[in-house]
Request: fold
Amino acid sequence: MSAAPQKAKPGGQQIPVVVSAVVPLNDLVTRFEFQRRDGGLFPPFSGGAHTVVEMKDGDLTRLNPYSLMSDPADSSTYAISVRREDDGRGGSLFMHRNVTQGDEMMISYPVNLFSLDLRAKKHMFFAGGIGITPFMAMIAQLEQSNGNWELHYACRTESLGTYVDVLSYKYPNKVHVYYDDQKQAIPLEDLLDGQPLGTNAYVCGPKGMIDWVHATAQAAGWPDAQVHSEEFLKPEPGKEFEVRLCKSDKTITVGENESLLEAIERAGVEAPFLCRGGACGQCETDVVKADGEFVHRDHWLDDEQHASGEKIMPCVSRFLGTLELDR
Amino acid sequence: MTIQFNDETFRDDYSFRNSDWAIKRFPFPFHEDSYMYAVNMEQHRGGPEGSVYEKRFDVDEHYVSEMRDRAMVLADDPLRCQSLPHMTLAGWDLLELIMVSKSEDYPDLFELHRDGNQWRWINKPLGIDDSFTFLDETTLPYGPMEYITRQTQGDFCVLDQRDDMLWMDAGMVTTQADWSLDFDIGMNFFEWHAPVPLAHEKGIFVRALKFLLNIQQGAPARRLNWTMTVNPLLDTSPENYHKWGIQKTTLTPENIGSKQHLRVELQTFFRLPRSNALVFPIRCYLCSFQDLMTMPKWGRRLHRVVRDLPEELATYKGFIDNRPMMLDYLSQFDDGQPTSPGVWPDFETEPPLKT
Reply:
């Protein structure tokens, strides 16, 4: 209608913040707390939401999504907990090594791709390792409205049990912890058996754990819509390839260790994005011409769309050959 | 500016009138001389000063009378306002969004004072001064959604988001273009849009759903929709079709200019933070043909749009039988001159009607 056309900023609205605390929790995980630079309050959010943190790493701008794990009712502070990935692409290492109290950063408004089903009579949470973070916020939200929940949390060792102490102290009857090194495992089949009708299950953790919970629940007769998971994909390295950006009239080369989206941004071309993990659909891009083979890795496009060769999600997907995009 | 609120009716004697100010800012929906469905979305972040796009929730001269009409509709039919049990938190989200927006955008009309969860809300045009506890519905006379939408122009659909789908799980719907909340409650996005012709085939709804699922906090969106209404009726519901449908047959060449109204919906979309639901306010603006014709550009364009509209759309929008009479009337205001692009009236620059 063009009443007052305004272009949306790629990645959505950002909030200028200052790092108000850096709290190491164990050998691998550190919590970062943010306050607004303007001294105001953050917008409220819903449990399961994430924020995309912008890191200025030399010439490189890193944009990584992290689950908000603070209490959604507390608008004074946002907090994330970051696990150091020594073999990762560098974002978590940058957070651990370079970010200190008092630093100024930009974070995105909260985005929720993993929200509670508020119709549920009961919520069962299954966390693996750093997958505990979204549940910290969900638990705080449910506690405010006397929600019915329980948590089953698998950790490698007691010393790597991030937030086990807090959770066990506050909710001794609702929190169940399992340590790998003590050969403890979540008794998933037993837990899924005999839950009241209307129970919803949520899983966040390594891919193997997510698949295990979905498969076990399905075999036990759970409706798919009552089992929720969030898996952020990370862009994976691959062979270098060339892309023609038709609208911007530019040709770019996507390096081995960067994503197609990052290469587009590096060329100074604005492209929409949100989750940067193949889940939200925001960066969907039309293919003009493709000479070669697609490496689709997203959860957004369906099989038919993948096969059509007409769309690509540049945040996680790649190409072998040469590609022309409508960007 | 301070708004002078009209004392007017949208039923019986139809004393509804638009001032010159209201005509000038009417959201004319056609940006060119023809119309077809499109996902015509844009960011809802302000607009030209004084326009209906400027504020998050536009308040105009019809506010007080529209709220009186809503109360009458609800007294006759309480099912126009429904909220499924899991939508209460979304209702609080909506109450907060509207109270914060209106008190910031119209500080002379609305005040919100917050001390933790102890809130005081002052609505001067409606003479309301209530103190309550946020998130405690026992402290309000209605549920949170009903409370705030009895004080806000436009219909409200509150949509839950689950399984990559939107669900019509709550709403306040008293000024609708012939659809029923009581019929649609609990339906998903494709189900409640099933009656719309042509748009499904064009893939409009698949694309629109993807867009809506992605609406983020802090980044609301908007679009316009339109239809035709005989007499300035806010409540053109299926429940009351027996009352208003017959009025479409009362149109004559003599009264069409004052009786026939273009009905425009300013639809906005906001992500709700605590519930992750989506609220879809549908604000209805009415303008009679004779008032629209005071803008030469709108006169020329409306004639061309109505003349060339596909038959299916004229049928769906309910004016196929009256179209010939409309065209007889509108053609007097189309001298064949070109029109400037865009929706604005461009009154100062567009040539007057050649007679």
Observations:
- The longest strand of chain B covers residues 260-271.
